[in-house]
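User: Second chain of the day. Same drill as before.
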Amino acid sequence: MFHSSAAGHSYFGRSLTELGFYSRAQIELKRAIEIGGNDSVEALRSVGAIYLETGEHARAAEELETYLGLAPKAKDEMKIREIINQQRVPYC
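Assistant: Same format as last time:
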């Protein structure tokens, strides 16, 4: 189907995320990153969002920091930084 298409894996991963199939979505998004490299920065953002959704706060922050490192002029850069900072706060 789209074995070598970063965009295909990215779209499929985002669709799976919308449906709540997070584990499978991560596989597809990470494959998009492997294939597309720096051209797949939105896939990094999506992986970070999955980690947020599943409560993996430290991993979410890492993925989102990597995303901002590759897309420093993202439209929502300030919001992403705020999310990262919130994930760094210890949960009680």
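The mean pLDDT is 91.

User: Great, on to the next one.
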